[in-house]
Design goal:
Strand 6 and strand 7 form a beta hairpin. The longest helix has 24 residues. By secondary structure, the protein is α+β, with helices and mostly antiparallel strands. The strands form three sheets. Strands 1-6-7-3-4-5-2 form a seven-stranded mixed beta sheet. Strands 8-9-10-11-12-13 form a six-stranded mixed beta sheet, with helices on both faces. Strands 14-16-15 form a three-stranded antiparallel beta sheet. Helices cover 38% and strands 20% of the residues. It folds into three domains: 85 residues, DNA-binding pseudobarrel domain (At1g16640 B3 domain); 121 residues, no CATH class; 94 residues, Arc Repressor Mutant, subunit A (Orthogonal Bundle), CATH 1.10.10.
Length: 373
């Protein structure tokens, strides 16, 4: 017996797998289960009935470099469950070829033979960096926070302190100047912003030095927090934003909002993390609804009440499940046909629908690429 499981971003983040109806029936009365992957490696996982999921699969997800919406084939083999990733993205990278052995040294000339002229060496002087890359001035190595800002969509424009960046947002742009704590006088940095050359200016310091940096920022602030003065930015908060971006689309506009408020630190982005967690939870509700429908055959009529016993085990409320079913009955999904309030027709299987949605996404991607060309 086998079954399919579609991964969600929450599964990948927590290293878990939701208990579908098939898994619940197979694991009935068990608190532990062994998974075996394509290479024969095993993973001991725990069945958390209270939270409706299997825990301990993070190592396998990392090994196969899996992403959200990829599909796993589950083989139910006695006491073990076999794992097989069905998408090309999950295949491991090809092993590199072994380097060729070094050539054998040439034999030395026979004694008394005519000596050959030594090989002439040519010394090549490379072009200066400023000739090859005139747009990037020669400077000290870029700070670590530069890579995080570029990942959020900003472009670095200077090669030394103050480090300036620009964000192009269609009809709007904004520029930002940053210096590390102690790298420049705060008054000089404030004068740069007040001159109009940049829209925002900030001092970068670690969370451990937040109090000192905020004191420095406050000593030259001409008015209220974020009103025309300097801001404080912590590299830990920037790294957290980049990490959040891997599970939710964040960009320069989210950064600008915190710069206007005068600080970007771990405390200031706590509300943003809570907002993202709520959105991801809604996505998890949608995935749980699909998992419930995956147990139904095509062309079957069912009521919302028919799904609720299993839905409650997954932590879904009736209004949440109702919202998922209503969404799946509208374009572009059309998995269900709404017959009456709370009554639906299963047009096709979830697996067939997922294949059609994948093909629809691929067609749209090709059309957009043709439009760009």
């Amino acid at each position: 017996m086998s079954g399919r499981y579609v991964l969600t971003s929450n599964c990948l983040t927590t290293g878990t797998m939701n208990l579908t109806l098939t898994l619940r029936n197979y694991l009935q009365g068990r608190d532990h289960v062994i998974f075996r992957d394509e290479d024969g490696d095993t993973y001991a996982a725990e069945v958390n009935w209270g939270r409706g999921r299997i825990e301990g699969l993070g190592a396998y997800y990392d090994k196969r470099r899996l992403s959200a919406n990829e599909t796993l084939l589950l083989h139910f083999e006695g006491e073990e469950i076999g794992l097989e990733a069905l998408t090309p993205a999950a295949k491991p990278a090809k092993p590199r070829r072994a380097p060729a052995p070094p050539p054998e040294p040439a034999p030395e000339p026979a004694e008394g033979s005519r000596a050959e002229k030594p090989e002439k060496r040519v010394k090549v002087t490379p072009y200066p960096r400023e000739v090859l890359f005139p747009q990037v001035p020669v400077s000290a190595e870029a700070p670590a926070f530069s890579a995080d800002l570029e990942a959020l969509g900003l472009v670095r424009e200077s090669g030394g302190p103050p480090w300036t960046f620009r964000a192009v947002l269609g009809r709007r742009t904004f520029s930002l100047a940053l210096v590390r704590f102690g790298e420049m006088e705060a008054r000089e940095l404030l004068a740069l912003r007040q001159s109009g050359r940049v829209h925002y200016a900030a001092i970068v310091a670690g969370e451990s030095s937040r109090a000192e940096a905020l004191s420095e920022v406050g000593s030259v602030r001409p008015s209220g927090l974020g009103q025309g003065g300097l801001a404080y930015v912590s590299p830990e908060a920037l790294s957290r934003l980049v990490k959040l971006r891997s599970v939710f689309p964040l960009g320069a506009l989210d950064l600008e909002k915190r710069l206007r408020e005068g600080r970007l630190d771990l405390e200031s982005i706590a509300s943003l993390e809570a907002e993202i967690s709520g959105v991801l939870a809604e996505r998890g509700v949608f995935s749980a609804g699909l998992a419930l429908l995956a147990e139904l055959p095509p062309q079957q009529i069912f009521l919302l009440a028919d799904l609720m016993p299993t839905a409650r085990e997954l932590g879904l409320e009736p209004d949440q499940l109702q919202g998922v079913l209503e969404t799946l009955s509208t374009p572009p999904f059309l998995l269900l046909k709404r017959l009456s309030p709370g009554e639906f027709l299963m047009r096709q299987s979830v697996n067939q629908a997922l294949e059609e949605w994948t093909e629809y996404a691929a067609v749209m991607e090709r059309r957009l690429e043709a439009m760009r060309l």
